[in-house]
Q: What sequence folds into this?
């Protein structure tokens, strides 16, 4: 019986969903593009109604979460939400409260919790994904944006664009345990896989802050594109030896050696890259390019772009299923 049950489960899951997939949030056309990462063919365009921005896949790859905002800043409505796309059916199957103007978020490693930055309210909220209930709302910095969670799920970092701070949420207590300054207008945050380092992009300063997670302290700063790169997206290789930074102002990706704290290479991609993501094996790097309406694909072995995929209007973020 177990054998038949397993076969039924496999048949119910489309073959394309068993391969790596890209999901791209298109802020201008208000939809999400689904792409087969192996063939690079567009499989579907999924309407989401509102402006989609931050996007992430669930740990098991069966769901994709996307932050949606309405067109009324500073007003919370039912249209501000974190939507859930079922990968198998390619449809939005659930919506969670996202506070006012949600932009970025993090899903816990066990898939049970969601932490969201509520940009206009100056708060971050925690949601139980099993019950759909908001279990905590925390005051963080002014105009919060980037959200990242440490690999073991203990810490959540929330960047704040106006106060130039990073708030540290202890997920055991759901309280803000610390806060520290970075450079001007911090945007995204990513952790190394071993959880020892975190990296924050600072758009106006044109820099990357390197953080010692044990002490929640900045231990280094690396300048991108002579300070003119306007960096936003950031991704870290599995072994932690490279950090990739999307420079929206320069249409490039900077490759950073975090140990040496310097840029070691530069990849030219499409226009205004913001979202950035790596394939599970680290071989391919993807950028969502907001002004050229495409996704660039770079080979991390050669550090060269090998192709691009047309998506919707004004792509913002890109997520890869594992």
A:
């Amino acid at each position: 019986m177990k054998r038949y049950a397993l076969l039924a489960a496999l048949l119910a899951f489309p073959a394309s969903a068993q391969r790596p997939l890209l999901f791209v949030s298109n802020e201008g056309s208000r939809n999400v593009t689904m792409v087969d990462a192996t063939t690079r063919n567009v499989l579907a365009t999924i309407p989401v109604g509102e402006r989609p921005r931050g996007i992430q896949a669930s740990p098991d790859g069966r769901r994709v979460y996307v932050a949606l905002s309405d067109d009324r800043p500073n007003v919370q409505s039912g249209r501000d939400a974190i939507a859930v796309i079922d990968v198998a059916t390619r449809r939005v199957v659930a919506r969670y409260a996202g506070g006012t103007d949600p932009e970025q978020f993090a899903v816990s490693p066990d898939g049970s919790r969601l932490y969201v930055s509520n940009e206009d309210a100056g708060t971050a909220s925690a949601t139980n994904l099993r019950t759909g209930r908001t279990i905590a709302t925390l005051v963080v910095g002014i105009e919060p944006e980037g959200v990242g969670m440490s690999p073991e799920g203990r810490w959540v970092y929330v960047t704040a664009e106006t106060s130039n701070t990073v708030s540290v949420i202890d997920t055991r207590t759901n309280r803000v345990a610390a806060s520290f300054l970075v450079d001007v207008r911090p945007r995204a945050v990513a952790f190394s896989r071993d959880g020892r380092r975190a990296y924050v992009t600072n758009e106006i300063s044109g820099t990357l802050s390197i953080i010692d997670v044990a002490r929640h302290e900045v231990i280094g700063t690396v300048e991108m594109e002579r300070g003119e790169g306007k960096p936003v997206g950031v991704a870290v290789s599995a072994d932690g030896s490279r950090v990739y930074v999307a420079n929206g102002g320069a249409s490039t990706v900077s490759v950073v050696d975090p140990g040496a704290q310097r840029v070691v290479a530069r990849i030219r991609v499409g226009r205004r890259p913001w979202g950035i993501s790596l394939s599970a094996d680290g071989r391919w790097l993807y950028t969502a390019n907001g002004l050229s309406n495409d996704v660039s694909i770079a080979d991390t072995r050669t550090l060269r772009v090998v192709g691009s995929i047309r998506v919707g209007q004004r792509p913002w973020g890109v997520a890869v299923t594992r």
Q: What stands out?
A: DSSP finds two helices and 28 strands in the chain. Residues 1-13 have pLDDT under 50 and may be disordered. Helices lie at 2-12, 15-18.
